[in-house]
Automatic annotation (TrEMBL):
Family, as annotated: Belongs to the cytochrome P450 family.
GO MF annotations, alphabetized: heme binding; iron ion binding; monooxygenase activity; oxidoreductase activity, acting on paired donors, with incorporation or reduction of molecular oxygen
Binding site for heme: 418
Classification via InterPro entries: Cyt_P450, Cyt_P450_CS, Cyt_P450_E_grp-I, Cyt_P450_sf, Cytochrome_P450_Monoox
Keywords linked to the UniProt accession: Heme, Iron, Metal-binding, Monooxygenase, Oxidoreductase
Cofactor(s) the record lists: heme
Protein name according to UniProt: Cytochrome P450
Gene3D superfamilies: Cytochrome P450
Pfam families recorded: p450
Length: 470
């Protein structure tokens, strides 16, 4: 009997790492079933219902996973910063390995630490600020043929311009001819990830053959072909520059190719491919969403749009903004912060405990998933007055200094904070300021904004904007 009991206990712990451990409050069987049914369509709403009912910390089952949900900033600080070594990236994010390989977003352990150390110098502020002219000129090009009264598929336009910017700064290429396919193939590969993780298919074995999986495989093969061609071409140019004693590379790919670790080794093609694709994804998707939602919010709050135009006109006086100007636009930055608060592009950070670890009052057992959702914390009335209200001016005082460290964390935090956060903030600021100089936008969408949360918070349908040229 003792043997049977021991076996049952071991099986239970395998199925549920928190079995036999004191747990935070959480749903019973019926509520868990309801959470399963609602999570795919509305994960943010499902998590909010859990915290409304069970408090700021909760535990619940989703498919085969036991999830610990933390929304207290001090607990999030322990997960992402103070006890970061007790965690790996969560199971869902590692499904991106098929696209991104072992890039900074998905790599773990010593390999990640080595890559982070190797890549950090390529993203120094002086390098990023040298891209300001590219960001502004591509934004102007996007608007060049926009006419007063014209209705635009706005999110598609912004996704296009941020992709062109990242391709230029990453590869030193204009997004034309065959290389337009890079964006299309990346989109196809990510669509598979979004669809899989927004349905119960995420709990099915990955090798299960489906038309969507076949399309994803073709997209990744196409991406690899194009990216490796670019890497080889740029590597040849780097060797030629080295022989000639010149350093003319201002693009990120060039810097990745010449980066040397402590042992004098450079990255091989596979490593460069993984990091290039990671930058390609992170460098346009998240910024595009921030800019899209900023204008969506301004269209609903014309007083905010007017105040933005006043600041831009006063500071820039009609000239193109520079990297230095991006630091002199406090209301623009406040408006961007408020957008990132209400609609953080990366809406949740997940981790998996690789050892038993104490977080706040609770022991998170090895193998459990940990969720720290910006989408909930950023709208917590404990930290923000009228948390669902768009109020950019809240950021013009000392709010950021008085908030708990992880009450506002749109780029994550701790050792794995987004390495490109300065790039993203400068790019979004310059795009918004450049657009405000030339146009006003009115939202004429026939449907209210609906969000499709997966890794990012994408709009579910088109955001239609009517243009008025200034």
């Amino acid at each position: 009997m003792k043997l049977r009991s021991l076996i049952r206990e071991k099986v239970a712990q395998k199925l549920d790492p928190s079995a036999g451990v004191a747990r935070p409050p959480g749903p019973g069987a019926l509520e868990t079933l309801k959470t399963h049914l609602s999570f795919a369509g509305d994960p943010i709403g499902s998590l909010r219902k859990l915290t409304d009912k069970h408090g700021p910390t909760a535990v619940f089952r989703l498919g085969p996973y036991t999830n610990y949900l933390f929304t207290n900033p001090e607990d999030i600080e322990e997960v992402l910063l103070r006890k970061n070594d007790a965690f790996h990236k969560d199971t869902m994010l590692h499904e991106l390995d098929a696209v991104l390989g072992q890039g900074l977003l998905t790599a773990e352990g010593d390999y990640w630490r080595g890559q982070r150390k190797l890549i950090s110098p390529t993203l120094r502020r002086k390098h990023i600020e040298s891209y300001a002219e590219v960001m502004v000129s591509h934004t102007k090009d996007m608007m060049a043929d926009w006419k007063t009264g014209e209705v635009r598929d706005f999110h598609a336009d912004i996704m296009g311009v941020t992709l062109r910017i990242v391709v230029k700064t990453l590869f030193n290429l204009e997004l034309e001819a065959d290389y337009h396919e890079v964006g299309e193939q990346l989109e196809a590969a990510l669509d598979y990830f979004f669809e899989r993780n927004n349905t119960m298919w995420r709990f099915m074995p990955e090798p299960l053959p489906t038309p969507m999986r076949a399309k994803n495989k073709r997209a990744i093969e196409g991406l690899d072909r194009l990216i490796y061609e670019l890497i080889e071409s740029r590597r040849r140019q780097a060797r030629a520059d080295t022989r000639a004693g010149v350093d003319e590379g201002n693009d990120l790919l060039y810097r990745l190719l010449i980066a040397v670790d402590d042992e004098g080794n450079k990255m091989d093609n596979r490593q460069v491919r993984d990091e290039a694709l990671t930058f390609l994804l992170a460098g346009h998707e998240t910024t595009a969403l921030a800019v899209t939602y900023a204008w969506h919010l301004m269209a609903a709050h014309p007083d905010a749009a007017a105040r933005l135009r006043e600041e831009v006109d006063a500071v820039l006086d009609g000239r193109a903004p520079t990297a230095e100007d991006a630091k002199k636009l406090p209301y623009t930055r406040a408006l961007l912060n408020e957008t990132l608060r209400l609609y953080p592009p990366a809406w949740i950070i997940g981790r998996e405990a690789i050892e038993d670890v104490q977080i706040g009052d609770w022991t998170v057992p090895r193998g459990a998933q940990v969720l720290t959702p910006q989408a909930l914390v950023h709208r917590d009335p404990r930290w923000f007055d009228a948390p669902d209200t768009f109020r950019p001016e809240r950021w013009l005082g000392d709010l950021e200094k008085t908030l708990p460290r992880f009450a506002f964390f749109p780029f994550g935090g701790g050792p794995r904070v987004c390495i490109g956060n300065y790039f993203a903030i400068m790019e979004a600021t310059l795009i918004i300021a450049t657009m405000a100089q030339q146009i006003e936008l009115e939202n004429v969408s026939t449907e209210p904004l609906r969000i499709r949360p997966s890794v990012t918070q994408r709009p579910l349908s088109e955001i239609k904007m009517k243009v008025t040229r200034r």
